[in-house]
Design brief:
The complex is a heterodimer. Chain A is built from eight helices and ten strands. Chain A is an alpha/beta fold. In chain A, strand 9 and strand 10 form a beta hairpin. Classes of the chains: A alpha/beta, B mainly alpha.
Chain lengths: 245, 277
């Protein structure tokens, strides 16, 4: 029995007068690793932002951990990794450790002083992403791949149930992309549900369990192994199945 | 230096100056990181409109400037939010409107009895006691707020969207940041004057950022640079009769240039070291 962890029911959203996403419904179950794919401008990042409560849909209902998003308040259970590595200001004065500690702020009371226990959590998160040695290094002195690992550590520090990532490997070299996706695969095996927005569909195929293709509407949402063995006509599916075969 | 400290007016000027420099520098660090540092300049123009209005209606200019700056700061945020204009366009519209009001009032009043130049260029050694007390209290409020919320403010400066997702009240922090800037600008009007008020917000943190340290160390260094500039400026004003405001800004600019040069030399040496290895 699969427990639904994110449920989208008939979601439509428009920035102006035209719907960017239209009538989208699907469920993400506990333990899934969902690859959210689609061409540029297809609405996949918009959909992710709707799941995160950043954007309010024009129509429809979203349930997170079986609670309506409008009343959901356990945001520390959701880890978000934005497409950030390329956007970090080059003089931003924070160490890797300081960035990871930001993840704990929502569960701390004012004046939000970091305790020994918090420092242990930060070290643990850095250990998971294999960045312990860089704890005191400024985020801007790290490579794109290392910066993304630090952002994942920030998302993991509250021990979340769900990890949502928006094209996290933009600007990251090929070698680091491979180890980055391996890290996501390992995290998923520990029970964390992952939703990954990407257009680099070939690279995620070894790790995802489900694929949702968006192009304004939901064009397909299938168990990865099932469509690889049956449907091979769709361009995305074909690319996705290369690695599986 | 010791002789200077025996005078009550110098003691008060130093205490107020140090507190205001601290408030400006730590607040400025966040404004620079959010690429919003020019709001200080805009709020100086807005405060000028407030001073002129205060003088016309016989209200203490410090109070009228504070009211104008507070309304203007929220106005800038709302205009940016509602009209989807860029931040600098919103700052420009509201600040120049207020500056226009100020100039218009001065022209219809055909000059004031008080020296409006003292508000434009600062006169910490000749400022009224009540205004000194008000400036000191406001600076303490700003410092306390930043001490309490510094981690949240850093998160919002780093990534507003992620901060929002994790449950941080981003709107409250953004509003408080501009409101505190308005308070700080008006408070620093006595120390460096409106013309140079935003210099203390921009230059000390910009200098501290050159050393590429952790956030904690950067914010402490920014405050220290601001404090050193104020102490040096006031000392020069006392012994050599220099304009305190101009000297404070010149000292902080010199510190910025020294740290910029140091950071460039450091970067050059690192690259050279990498090439030889």
């Amino acid at each position: 029995m699969h427990t639904p962890i994110i449920q989208l029911k008939d979601i439509s959203f428009a920035y102006t007068t035209t719907d960017v996403v239209k009538d989208i419904s699907f469920e993400i179950n506990e333990g899934d690793f969902v690859g959210l794919i689609g061409p540029n401008g297809s609405g996949k990042t918009t959909l992710l932002k709707i799941m995160l409560g950043i954007l309010k849909p024009r129509k429809g209902e979203i349930l997170i951990l079986q609670k309506n998003i409008n009343v959901f308040n356990e945001w520390f259970k959701i880890g978000y990794v934005p497409q950030k590595a390329t956007n970090i200001a080059k003089d931003f004065p924070a160490t890797a450790e300081e960035i990871v500690s930001m993840g704990l702020l929502s569960i701390k009371k004012i004046p939000k002083i970091m305790t020994k226990e918090d420092k242990l959590k930060i070290n643990e998160a850095l250990k998971i992403v294999k960045m312990t040695a860089f704890a005191k290094t400024r985020i801007t002195e790290l490579s794109g791949g290392q910066q993304q690992r630090i952002l994942i550590a920030k998302a993991l520090v509250t021990n979340p149930k769900i990890l949502l990532l928006d094209e996290p490997t933009t600007g990251v070299d090929q070698e680091n992309q491979t180890s980055f996706y391996e890290l996501l695969g390992k995290l998923n095996k520990t029970g964390i549900t992952i939703v990954l927005v990407t257009h680099d569909i070939g690279r995620i195929t070894d790790h995802v369990t489900k694929v949702a293709s968006i192009n304004q509407t939901l064009t397909f949402y299938k168990d990865h192994n099932k469509f690889c063995s049956k449907d091979k006509n769709h361009k995305h599916e074909h690319t996705l199945c290369i690695h599986k075969e | 230096m010791i002789e200077m400290l025996t005078y009550a007016f110098m003691q008060k000027a130093l205490i107020t100056g140090i507190l205001i420099a601290t408030a400006c520098s730590i607040l400025g660090t966040f404004l620079i990181l959010k690429k919003f540092s020019l709001i200080g300049d805009g709020l100086s123009h807005i405060s000028f409109g407030g001073i002129a209005t205060g003088l016309l209606f016989n209200i203490t200019p410090f109070i009228s400037a504070l009211i104008f700056a507070l309304i203007g700061s929220v106005g800038i945020l709302k205009l940016k939010e509602k009209s989807k204009l860029h931040g600098d366009t919103s700052i420009g519209i509201i600040s120049y409107a207020s500056l226009g009001i100020g100039i218009f009032i001065i022209s219809i009043a055909r000059g004031f009895n008080v020296d409006i130049l003292s508000y434009l260029f600062g006169s910490i050694l000749a400022i009224k006691e009540t205004e000194l007390i008000l400036s000191t209290m406001l600076a303490i409020i700003v410092i306390l707020f930043i001490i309490i919320y510094n981690k949240d403010l850093l998160y919002v400066s780093f990534d507003e969207e992620s901060a929002k997702v994790s449950g941080i009240n981003v709107n409250f922090l953004n509003t408080m940041l501009v409101v505190l800037t308005a308070i700080t600008i008006v408070s620093s009007m006595n120390v460096v004057g409106l013309m140079l008020a935003s210099a203390l917000i921009i230059i000390p943190p910009a200098a501290a950022l050159q050393l590429k340290m952790s956030f904690r160390k950067t914010i402490i260094l920014a405050a220290l640079i601001g404090i050193v500039s104020v102490i040096t400026g006031l000392t020069a004003a006392y012994y050599y009769d220099f304009a305190a405001s101009g000297t404070i800004v010149i000292i902080s600019t010199l510190i910025f240039l020294i740290l910029l040069t140091f950071s460039k030399i450091q970067a050059y040496n690192s690259i050279k070291k990498l090439q030889t290895n």
